Each structure stands twice: as C-alpha cells, then as structure tokens.
Amino acid sequence: MTSTLPRPSAVALACAALLAGPALAADASVEARLTSRGMQYQLDEDGDYKVIYAYQQEHRSQQVFVSGRTEQVSGLTIREVFSPAGRLSADGIDGAKALALLAGSRKKKIGSWELEGDVLLFVIKLPDTVDGATLEAAMDLAAETADNKEIELSGDKDDL
Fold it and tell me: From residue 73, how far is each of 43, 81, 126, 133, 149 by CA, in Å?
C-alpha cells in the first residue's frame, strides 16, 4: 500500500534541523560517574552538567559544572570542572584584583582562575579518565573555592 501523505524533501529536513539549533548530546560517561556518586544534575543549554551544592549551615548554594565536551591536548582527553565566583563589573574586579587572582592561582595545587566573558570562574582541568570519586572531589573543591571567593568579592550576595 502506498502512502498518500507528502514526504518532506531532504532539503526541507536539513533546513529544519539547522533551524532547530545544535542538538545537545548527553555524555554517558559523565552521567554514569555523577550517578554513581548519587549526584543530581541538570543538562544546561550548552550541554554542561550543572550541579547545585547546598551549604545548609551558611544558607548558601553554589553552582558547579562538568563540561559536556572534552578537548584533546597532546594525546590526553581533558574535561573541565568549573564554578562561577563573581562578575567583573558587578564585583569590581579590576587590575589589582586580577593580579591577586593570578598570584592566588600560583598557590593552588589544582585549578586556577579564568574569565568567561564577564564571569570569574574557578576551573579544574582533569584527564577524562578519572573515576566518579575523583570527579566528585574536583567538583567539591571547585564549589568551595568559588563560593569562598564569591563571599570575599561580594559579601552576602549568593548569586552564583
């Protein structure tokens, strides 16, 4: 039996796919590691895994992200864990504060301060082969470091 419904052309399907925007592909390895640690996460619009840390005693929260993408560097597959700590304009991060952040990065054993547009991030770059416990430890460190810096920069604000 032949269908009487019109079939969309390949060109029409291709145009529809382009107009729909980039598809976000979940990374099963990240999901498995987060799930193995009992972590609840959301996939954000960039394809990154967002986890909200709640610091009950301090009545604060902190966002931490595990990049949904990896990068290749000298044969290593690297994944980033990052957490926002402030906004350059809103928190008055000027040249002197930027130099202090650079000096502070030198003292960190893992992770460093980076900028993404107007946002100050604490970023940890890891081989993508780390297990769930190591990934969680990096996330814990990123969250704590970024939240402490947010308190230092903005006082009681808890925007990030």
Answer: 25, 16, 11, 23, 29
